[in-house]
Structure formats: C-alpha cells, structure tokens
Backbone:
C-alpha cells in the first residue's frame, strides 16, 4: 500500500515544556506532505523527522491560538532562505490572512515563492482541498475561538491485478490500467475473461481525523463514522474536568467516547496539559472506554 502516516512534531498544549512542543503534525499521504498546525519550533522538529522542506505543499491551521500557529512565519522565512520556488498553500480562518500578509511584508524580503492563503469557514463541514487521490474536509469544533479539525480521506483505490492471470492469458502490461478500471480481456480465440477473474478487491480507503482544541461534543462522532485513525485532544484527565469545561477542552475519557461512538480504528491522544508529568494516567482513562488507544509523543511515526 502507498504510505499514509502521521509524524508527530508536537503534542503539548499552550505552555511549552522540556518534554513537549506545541501542536503540529505532518501527514504523509501518497506522494504528498501536509502539515496540521504549526506551533513555535515546528521547523526544527521537521528537520528531526528528516522530511524535506520542499515536499511540504499545504498547511492547515485549526485555530489562531499561538500554540497552533506561532511557528508559521518563521517556517515561511526559512523556506525563503533555502530558495524555495513552489507555492505554499495556507488554509486557516480568514482572520489570519491580513496578519500573515503583514508579517511576510515586514519580516521577509524577496521571498522567492508565493504564499497562497485559503480562508476556511470553521462552522461548516466542507471539502477545502481535493486532488486525484485525497480530499481534506473541515470538522467544526467548539473552542474559545473559531476552530475546526481536518479529515483527510483517500479516494477509492483501484483493485489489484492477479499477476498469475496476466501470465496465463498472455495479457500485455500495457493493459493493466484498463483492467484495473474494470475492463474484461478477450483472448485471441475470442473468449472473454471477466474482470472479476483478473483482479482482487482494492484495499479499503484510509482516513485520518485531526480534532484539535475542542470541548467534548456528543455529536462529533457522526462526522467521523468509520475513520481509520482519530487524533483527539486530551488536555486533561477526569480529575480536571472542571478545567476542561472552563477552557473548552476535552478529557482523555471524552476523547475515547468520541472514538468509540465513531467506530474508529484507533485513537491517538495529545495536547497534554503541562500539569501532567506522566500521561499514562490519561491513557488508562481512555483505554477503559476505547481499548485501541495510544499516547502520542514527539517524533512518533504512526501508520494510519
């Protein structure tokens, strides 16, 4: 299968610590590299991943709290110093556009590439990016300012060719794409070999949901049905549920409830409060509700 994996660059919350960076992830899907949020220090974390800056084409910002976007202008400036020429597309709430333009004008000179800003309506679930193999759509969330998550889906994949059938019927390799698209094969004797004998079913499409800062939303699972992998913020444990309610965050148990109700394949926890020196307490709370849960940590690489 083509790669579809998540690189965790930062999984802490607003207060930076020596253990965790602010929120940022790189999603490697097919031959694309997408970024989800861009906290302070993200470009340094990206270097540690050994993923080339030039491969990054799009950045999706969930909301305009600093621990999710303070790294953006620094990264853009570095790209200019490195001689980037390809456009960089930024998807975020419309309020970021004018601020980003002012920062680029003030802090960079002869940038050498275009920064293309795409305003996002955080109140609607809508596709904000699409190409021939994936879609990215918004997930409306509820925080102290306009916020959305992002759902990255593979489009339907093509079936697999049965190589032994190619050999048995002398089918040239030039016909592989036609057969993958559903064509039958007619032999020299005029016998028609139906397509279903020439292929095996395609791998099911995979999907990844990134739900950053949000209070617990009882209906959120309806937008995430059957998601392969769900990242859901888990800032607090149940011991701090009043803080979660006050600051519009979620507990690990609540994140697990979303994963359970959505029928997710697995759950990733993150955006930990700095008050926790050991996040295993959050993991235990979540696993009591949804067993296939894991903590995220910087430099983790997770297959979707």
Residues:
């Amino acid at each position: 299968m083509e790669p579809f994996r998540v690189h965790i660059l930062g999984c802490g919350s607003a207060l930076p610590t020596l253990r965790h960076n602010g929120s940022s992830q790189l999603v490697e899907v097919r031959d694309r590299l997408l970024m989800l949020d861009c906290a302070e220090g993200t470009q340094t974390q990206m270097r540690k991943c050994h993923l080339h800056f030039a491969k990054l084409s799009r950045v999706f910002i969930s909301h305009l709290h600093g621990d999710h976007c303070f790294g953006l202008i620094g990264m853009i400036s570095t790209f200019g110093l490195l001689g980037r020429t390809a456009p960089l597309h930024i998807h975020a709430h419309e309020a970021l556009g004018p601020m980003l333009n002012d920062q680029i004008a003030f802090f960079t000179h002869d940038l050498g590439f275009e920064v293309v800003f795409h305003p996002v309506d955080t109140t609607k679930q809508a596709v904000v990016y699409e190409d021939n193999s994936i879609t990215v759509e918004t997930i409306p969330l509820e925080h102290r300012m306009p916020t959305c998550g992002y759902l990255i889906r593979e489009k339907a994949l093509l079936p697999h060719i049965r190589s032994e059938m190619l050999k048995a019927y002398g089918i040239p390799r030039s016909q592989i794409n036609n057969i993958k698209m559903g064509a039958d094969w007619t032999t020299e004797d005029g016998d028609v070999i139906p397509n279903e004998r020439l292929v095996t079913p395609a791998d099911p499409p995979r999907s990844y949901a990134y739900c950053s800062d949000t209070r617990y939303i009882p209906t959120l699972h309806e937008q995430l049905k059957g998601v392969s992998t769900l990242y859901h913020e888990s800032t607090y444990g149940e011991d701090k549920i009043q803080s979660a309610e006050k600051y519009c965050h979620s507990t690990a148990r609540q994140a697990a409830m979303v994963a359970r109700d959505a029928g997710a394949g697995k759950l990733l926890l993150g955006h930990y409060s700095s008050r926790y020196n050991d996040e295993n307490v959050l993991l235990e709370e979540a696993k009591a509700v949804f067993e296939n849960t894991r903590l995220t940590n910087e430099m983790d690489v997770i297959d979707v």
About this structure: The first helix runs from residue 42 to 48. The mean pLDDT is 93. The longest strand covers residues 4-10. The two ends are 11 Å apart (CA to CA).
